[in-house]
């Protein structure tokens, strides 16, 4: 399937999910039903996309389905209470749909004004004004500021590898929340999810720092090549030895993970997929696995997983569920 066909299918899936959420919200009138009927009659692909979403509710295990129905009923009750007080305006209806869509297409709404960004599944490389290169991984956004005193990158979210051009007069700094990593001619990776992250040093030396709890002081840690430093919103970790071949495998289109729980593998794979994978079995989630996956071939990996771990793959619309 080419990129245009894939994008068209994803758009239809997005629309089908939004329609299903809207039709099962408990606040549907004749005008909504007529609008849905017009959408569905646009073609057989529209009808199939909606059937796929409906199939999800039929195939989900009963406990999960019951929980989702309970949550949906609570949301519908709250929504009806709000609408009863304020009245349903076009803007309100649009915002409700936007919230539903954001759950499946978060990257379209995150940091839309960033200087550079990639969407889910995309990767790109950018040559900065100073000659440094920023390699952006999936679902990543950065802002760039280069002036006479400093080269500053703000990693808003995601993951990037920086190949820094040497310039002793202009420090190269990557800011992630309160943590800043500084380098002078080096190659390193920074990952950040908005709350926590990690710095992995491939070559050279870097120093990561952040304000301490006392405010006037600064916590900092220097990394040597082959080390990784984790950080949170509250603290810096200590440098640890990293598996560099795994840390930058995404630059070669691969995911490599050794002896990690399956839930961690799924979380990593989901960074590259719009069709998110969900684990429905706690025991299965904790099972340790080793993986070597082509980022563009995660569907093939799912098929192989059914045979190697004897699990059931439930695929419907924009979601995939794994169950033992």
Automatic annotation (TrEMBL):
Residues 14-56 form the FecR N-terminal domain. Coiled coil: none annotated. The chain crosses the membrane at residues 87-105. It holds the Pfam family DUF4880. InterPro entries: FecR (IPR006860), FecR_N (IPR032623), Ferrdict_sens_TM (IPR012373). Keywords: Membrane, Transmembrane, Transmembrane helix. Residues 115-207 form the FecR protein domain. One of its GO terms (molecular function) is sigma factor antagonist activity. This is Iron dicitrate transport regulator FecR. It comes from Methylomonas methanica. The lineage of its organism: Bacteria, Pseudomonadati, Pseudomonadota, Gammaproteobacteria, Methylococcales.
């Amino acid at each position: 399937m080419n990129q245009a066909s894939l994008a068209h299918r994803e758009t239809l899936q997005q629309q089908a999910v939004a329609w299903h959420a809207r039709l099962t919200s408990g606040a549907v009138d004749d005008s909504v039903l007529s609008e849905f009927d017009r959408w569905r009659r646009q073609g057989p692909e529209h009808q199939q996309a909606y059937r796929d979403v409906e199939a999800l509710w039929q195939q989900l295990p009963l406990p999960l389905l019951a929980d989702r129905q309970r949550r949906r009923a609570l949301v519908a009750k709250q929504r009806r209470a709000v609408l009863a007080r304020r009245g349903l305006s076009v803007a309100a209806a649009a915002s409700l749909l936007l919230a539903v869509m954001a759950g499946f297409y978060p990257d379209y709404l995150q940091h839309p004004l960033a200087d550079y960004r990639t969407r889910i599944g995309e990767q790109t490389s950018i040559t900065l004004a100073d000659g440094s290169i920023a390699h952006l991984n999936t679902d990543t956004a950065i802002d760039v500021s280069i002036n006479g005193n400093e080269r500053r990158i703000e990693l808003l979210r995601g993951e990037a590898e920086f190949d820094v051009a040497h310039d002793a007069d202009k420090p190269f700094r990557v800011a992630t929340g309160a943590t800043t990593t500084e380098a002078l001619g080096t190659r390193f990776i920074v990952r950040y999810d908005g709350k926590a992250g990690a710095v992995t040093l491939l070559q050279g030396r870097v120093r990561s720092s952040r304000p301490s709890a006392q405010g006037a002081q600064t916590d900092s840690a220097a990394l040597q090549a082959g080390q990784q430093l984790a950080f949170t919103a509250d603290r810096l970790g200590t440098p640890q030895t990293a598996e560099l071949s795994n840390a930058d495998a995404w630059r070669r289109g691969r995911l490599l993970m050794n002896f990690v729980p399956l839930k961690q593998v799924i979380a990593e794979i989901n960074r590259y997929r719009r069709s998110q994978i969900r684990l429905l079995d706690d025991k299965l989630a904790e099972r340790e696995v080793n993986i070597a996956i082509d980022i563009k071939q995660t569907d093939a990996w799912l098929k192989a997983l059914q045979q190697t771990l004897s699990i059931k793959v439930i695929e419907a619309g924009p979601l995939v569920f794994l169950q033992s």
